[in-house]
Design a protein that fits this description.
The chain is an alpha+beta fold. The chain contains six helices and seven strands. It is globular. The model has no long low-confidence stretch (mean pLDDT 96). Pfam families: GyrI-like.
């Protein structure tokens, strides 16, 4: 049976519009770092190279190679970890040109360095992209985290973060980093801003 993350991993990817405490295990990712306004072309180009690799992995059995442990699955959604440059942190308002990000697409557990190399070779052959050399493969474990579903424009996210911060206060929790993770359940290129669905998440720990 095909593994569909929307059905099999609801706790991680389909939260409610209510803050919740979760524990996120270690996952594998294709990742690429960048800086600047996500509305600019560079951000979309970075997304493109990640998806080209993700689909190269998923389609391997149809191309004559089946990785050990392979199973049918739906490609995971785009995710991003967001921060600000030191200059951006000094400003009273958000300057999107000062954003730092690492966007990524999770990979199934069967993906190994060998599988990554094969995927890279496939993309280089069929759809050469200079950004391939900037993509890394590795694991991230968020561990104890607070998350909720944000519905609407990315510019309105502070409203949801305020609710998450209130949850921290009420439950004797504190953030371990000023960075936060976003998981994009909607394609911002195709869905109007008011209907965008985004998982907001950041790492936390118990106070004291």
């Amino acid at each position: 049976m095909k593994h569909e993350w929307r059905k099999k991993e609801k706790e991680l990817y389909i939260p409610k519009q209510k803050t919740a405490l979760v524990s996120i295990p270690e996952h594998k990712f294709f990742m690429i770092k960048g800086q600047g306004n996500p509305n600019e072309a560079q951000f979309s180009e970075n997304i493109g190279v990640l998806y080209s690799l993700a689909y190269a992995v998923r389609m391997m059995p149809k191309k004559g190679f089946t990785p050990e442990g392979y199973f049918e699955y739906t490609v995971y959604p785009l995710e991003g970890i967001w921060d600000l440059t030191e200059e951006g942190k000094k400003l009273d308002t958000l300057n999107k040109d000062e954003l730092l990000y690492m966007i990524m697409i999770r990979q199934p557990d069967f993906v190994t360095e060998e599988v990554v190399e094969r995927a890279s070779e496939t993309v280089r052959k069929n759809k050469p992209n200079p950004l391939l050399d900037e993509v890394t493969f590795g694991t991230i474990e968020d561990g104890l985290s607070v998350q909720m579903l944000h519905l609407g424009s990315y510019d309105d996210e502070p409203q949801s973060f305020a609710k998450m911060n209130k949850f921290l206060e009420d439950n004797q929790l504190e953030r371990t980093s000023l960075t936060h993770r976003e998981i994009y359940l909607s394609d911002f290129r195709k869905v109007e801003a008011a209907k965008l669905k985004t998982v907001l998440r950041y790492r936390v720990k118990k106070k004291g």
